[in-house]
Amino acid sequence: MENREFDFDEPIIFCAHNLDIGNPKKLATELAKRLGVNINILKLGGEVMETITIPNATSTKNLNILNPKYDKFFKYALEYGDEAHVIANDYLQYFLPASVDYLKLIETLKQKESADEELDSFIELKKFGATEVYIANTEEVNLTDDDKQDWSNVFKVIGNLESHFLYKLP
Length: 170
Fold this sequence. Notes:
Helix content: 25-40%
Strand content: 25-35%
Order of helices and strands: EHEEEEEEHHEHHE
Radius of gyration: 16 Å
Strand order of the largest sheet: 3-2-4-5-6-7-1-8-9
């Protein structure tokens, strides 16, 4: 069988959030309530530090405390399977649970097909406090450390790209 590389451009997805990220336990508790899931707090090395449980939750997500040695701007990664929300002070980068073509994703969002999984994933970003989502082609985004400092800088970089797409959450 012939190995083939993906023949499409991947999206990079950013949005602002309104989470208090100062304390891992407070953040995990807030996320558990907003998302309706249990949250394992994992310290560096992957060891479960604590689990926040809520009544009637049917799934558990992991909140990893990230090592500032590798990236000083992203503080946490909320993971569930292949889906991830990498959280900085006032914004997050969202990683879809599957490989998706940038152009196909944009078309799906423009058509607002409510049964589509990608759309449901985006609508869930409202629970993080997002009102709009910025999507660009990964190949075109090159954020410097200065850019990563806060949402206004990320917003400027993404917003100035010719190929970016703004999706306003319903």
